[in-house]
């Protein structure tokens, strides 16, 4: 089999990637105990020690950073992706008997079938779980039904042969 397509790494693609990946790997939960401990520690330092108020405010500030890192995790992740060199570039995706190849102006990736541990299908895409514990998202908008079935078969055959 030989399948090839192209897509643009844009905000919509990155947003879909984040949302669909969250179905398989839920985002981290807010750590209320940690935030509470930082706030309490900050106030204790400010009220009951001879330390500078700035030290207490530092820990209170850390509590706010922890909260906002949870609250705006998707926005921050999307911003980092949009700042990357590959943002806005055309990506060429190729699926064949040997591997899945992702080629762009700045980065070339090849995932041999024996490097793919599992494939998880989401409503809008495919998540490749790799042997090195990494993962990669492929949108169904850049795939056809035949290539999706082919990828599933290749992964099932690999699991059976091990």
**What best-fitting shape do the alpha-carbon axes yield?**
elongated
Low-confidence stretches: none
- How far apart the termini lie comes to 23 Å
Question: What's the level 1 CATH class of the largest domain?
Answer: Mainly Beta
Output the number of helix runs: 5
Radius of gyration: 22 Å
Instruction: List the secondary-structure elements in sequence, H or E.
Output: EHHHHEEEEEEH
Main sheet?
4 strands, antiparallel
Show the helix and strand layout:
Blueprint lengths: L1 E7 L2 H14 L7 H17 L4 H19 L1 H11 L6 E7 L2 E5 L4 E5 L3 E6 L3 E6 L4 E5 L5 H17 L1
Antiparallel strand pairs: 1-2, 2-3, 3-4, 5-6, 6-7
Helix pairs in contact: 1-4, 2-3
Give descriptors for this structure.
162 residues, 2 domains, four-stranded antiparallel sheet, 48% helix, alpha+beta
Overview of this protein structure:
The two termini are 23 Å apart. The chain has helices at 11-24, 32-48, 53-71, 73-83, 145-161, and strands spanning 2-8, 90-96, 99-103, 108-112, 116-121, 125-130, 135-139. By secondary structure, the chain is α+β, with helices and mostly antiparallel strands. Helix 1 crosses helix 4 (73-83). Strand 5 and strand 6 (125-130) form a beta hairpin. It has 5 helices and 7 strands. It has a 4-stranded antiparallel β-sheet with strand order 1-2-3-4, with no helix packed on it. A 3-stranded antiparallel β-sheet has the order 5-6-7.
């Amino acid at each position: 089999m030989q399948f090839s397509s192209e897509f643009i790494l844009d905000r919509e693609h990155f947003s879909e990637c984040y949302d669909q990946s969250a179905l398989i790997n839920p985002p981290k939960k807010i750590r209320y105990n940690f935030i509470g401990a930082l706030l309490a520690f900050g106030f204790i330092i400010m009220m009951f020690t001879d330390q500078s108020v700035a030290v207490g405010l530092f820990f209170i500030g850390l509590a706010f950073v922890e909260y906002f890192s949870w609250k705006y995790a998707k926005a921050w992740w999307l911003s980092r992706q949009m700042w990357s060199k590959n943002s806005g570039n055309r990506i060429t995706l190729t699926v064949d008997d040997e591997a899945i190849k992702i080629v762009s102006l700045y980065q070339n990736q090849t995932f041999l079938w024996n490097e793919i541990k599992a494939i998880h299908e989401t409503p809008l895409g495919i998540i490749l779980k790799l042997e090195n514990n990494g993962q990669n998202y492929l949108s169904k908008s850049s795939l056809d039904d035949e290539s999706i079935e082919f990828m599933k078969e290749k992964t099932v055959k690999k699991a059976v042969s091990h």
